[in-house]
Amino acid sequence: MSEANFFQDWDLSHWNYLHGKPEGEADFKQIPEDFVVTEKLPFELTGDGENLYLLIEKRELNTQQVCQHLAKVLGKRLRDVGYAGLKDKQSVSRQWFSVQSNVTQELDLSGIETDNIKIVETKRHQKKLKVGALEGNGFSIRLRNVSNKEELLARLEAVAEKGVPNYFGLQRFGFKGNNLNWANRWADGESIRDKKIKGFALSAARSFIFNEVVSARVEQEKLFTPIAGDVFVLAGSNSYFTGELDESIDRRLAERDILLSAPMVGKGDAIAESDALEFENTIVEQHMSWNALLAEQGLEQQRRVIHLIPNNLICQVQDNDVVVKFDLPSGAFATSVLRECINFRVHEHENTN
To answer: Which positions fall inside the TRUD domain (predicted)?
Structure first.
């Protein structure tokens, strides 16, 4: 691989649209309050136990910065602070954190709040908050200076009815896709010591392959239509199965009791079979160096749902702006919903990472 491949700017605009590419434009994330996200836990807090849960409203800070702040102020080790998922820095995020503390120890929270950190709620729980322990997120997004409100509203209506491809958002790939450059460098034999960069590289490579498969299904009008050998995911779970295509499969897909999926590649045999396996392999095999890297690093073959319908979608027109609100399950990207509805204006000063 040439050195140029290690430093390229990636064009990630090629993935196919379900509803066609929108024509309208809007300003996106002009201020943190334009993008408000609230986490939803999948369990009720018990009110007792050795972990204090804090619902923190953070502004212009990433999740790790809040973890470090909590550990420092409360005199804890960083590993004593738990969180469920990472949240954008350029946002106002209401996010849960847990801090391990003895049930008899009353933590002094007086030093936690800053201009960018506010405590919304606290409650004790028996278990530490772990990555992935999240039901979903609620979003409130202000799109400013919308050029074509009629088109945007019509597209939002179509998205509420038919959904969108469940693409990984551009933030997964880093600024101008640089996380993919790291994946190329690592796959080509470069020694990378930074664990954070290694994690970003693996995640980006795996997500890129997934998006490529989903885009191909959109192009061939197979986002809703099963292929022989497809892998079906049980709604609301990580369980999956393959089965013969019949009326019961069609009915369960229509009822969204089961959902179509695409590969999250890793070590071991592929999970899809027959025609679906052949379809997926035509794309997966274009990225053999990444496949080898993912397998070498021990990532298991997994599946991810390819179709997403946002819940509770509503919109409000406010002069030249449109405020859009909706809920998404854990792991889904709000930007993948919005890309079907509007184009974001590019401002030269912006770094979208």
So the answer is: 163-308
Bridge partners for 241 per DSSP = 232
Report pLDDT digits (tens) over 58-91: 999 999 999 999 999 999 999 999 999 889 889 9
Q: What is the full DSSP assignment across 21-75?
A: ----EEEE-SSGGGEEEEEE-SS---S-SSEEEEEEEEES--HHHHHHHHHHHHT
Backbone angles phi, psi at 185, to 5 degrees: -65, -40
**Can you tell me whether residue 315 is helix, strand or coil?**
strand
pLDDT digits (tens, 9 = 90+) for 110-149: 999 999 999 999 999 999 999 989 999 999 999 999 999 9
The rounded radius of gyration (Å) of the Cα atoms in the chain is: 21
Single out the residue of 304, 308, 262 nearest to residue 283, CA to CA. 262
Domains of the chain (ranges, CATH numbers): 3-25+164-308 (3.30.2340.10), 43-133 (3.30.2350.20)
Q: Which residues are catalytic?
A: 88
pLDDT single digits (tens) 272-295:
999 999 999 999 999 999 999 999
Task: Judge whether residue 347 has pLDDT over 80.
Answer: no
Q: How many CB atoms lie under 10 A from the CB of residue 151?
A: 15
3-class state of residue 164 by DSSP:
strand
| Cα–Cα distance for residue pair 311/303, rounded to 1 Å | 22
What pLDDT is stored for residue 88 in this prediction?
86
What are 147's two structure tokens? Answer: 């050029």
DSSP state of 267: B
Contact 300, 219 (CB under 8 A): no
What confidence score (pLDDT) does residue 36 get?
A: 97
For residue 55, which amino acid is it? L
